[in-house]
Amino acid sequence: MNSFGVRFSITTFGESHGSAIGCIVDGVPAGLLIDESYIQSEVDRRRPGLTKFATQRKESDTVQILSGVFEGVSTGAPIALVIYNENQKSSDYESIKSLFRPAHADFTYFKKYNIRDYRGGGRSSARETAARVAGAAIAKKLLETFGIKVQSGIFAIGGIEAQNIDFEYAKTSEIFALDRLKEEAQKEAIREAQKDKDSIGGCAYVKILNAPIGLGEPLYEKLDALLGGALMGINGVKAVEIGEGINASKLRGSQNNDQMDKTGFLSNHSGGILGGISTGEDITLKIHFKPTPSIFLNQSTQDTNAEPINFTLKGRHDPCIAIRGSIVAEAMAALVIADTLLLNASATVENLKKIYGNN
Length: 359
Prior knowledge:
- This protein is α+β, with helices and mostly antiparallel strands.
- About 30% of the residues lie in helices and about 20% in strands.
- The strands form six sheets. The chain has a five-stranded antiparallel sheet with strand order 1-2-3-7-4, with helices on one face. It has a five-stranded antiparallel sheet with strand order 9-8-10-16-11. The protein has a two-stranded antiparallel ribbon with strand order 5-6.
- α1 (about 35-45) crosses α3 (about 130-145).
- The longest helix has 24 residues, at about 320-345.
- The protein starts with a strand and ends with a helix.
- The model has no long low-confidence stretch (mean pLDDT about 90).
């Protein structure tokens, strides 16, 4: 499947070394201000080549709007966004065209489709996520009209965890670090991995502010399940925590329960979701990324004929995919909230009356 969402949906297309990537954004209500400069600024946040802590592939990632917008506002028609690839170096992958890189999708894609697009992983490349970020920029503008905000940053690199969370500081950090006092140690961990021709894992933190009460369904479309599925669908994500997450398994109910008084909740161990439905509290998420599988050490694997082979990878790769991955996590969270917000608009008779009046 290449589409995500029900009422507010995106369908992405393109490959890492194809001519372009992009997405179709459908379900955007007519009359929403579409700010091209804002969309571009969001895509620029995950653009490659900006720092030494990201792949040095040089792409402008210029977003072009092809349809669905007239005089700066959405028309209600599908909005098509395209980003042309400008700096493909497919020759870097000639030496691995017939082998499977460890921990990549090469093996499973080949077994499923019997096609080996060796040029940077083809469709399985994280390059595709630029299209998601572009589409999510429109979702964020929709959420903005309801006062909903989605923030992200890096919580941990290689186990070096933030003690203080500062989303404003993360905006100024080369690695989107949430804790200025931990940033240098996190950077050094990345440098050490690079020096060893290796990579390192990390954890992103996403917070959704001002989400209304009632998003999500009680059984099979729980908000936590939707968020978990969306975030687990990002390249390299191996675990997602909501609220206390894993730590909840170590607590007693008396420690984990969010008690209430007449003013509301006294804590937020639930991470803003109870029974699959948003509580109105901040929705908090931790997204754990594995180390970048593209490393520059000698490794053993199989070729497409199942013969063992040793190889050393070439190319341009992120030493820590969590860094730019945090922007993608923020984007996917925004897409989920936009979709559930529109779905929730018709959840009650009262809401329908507000929308349609006496018509």
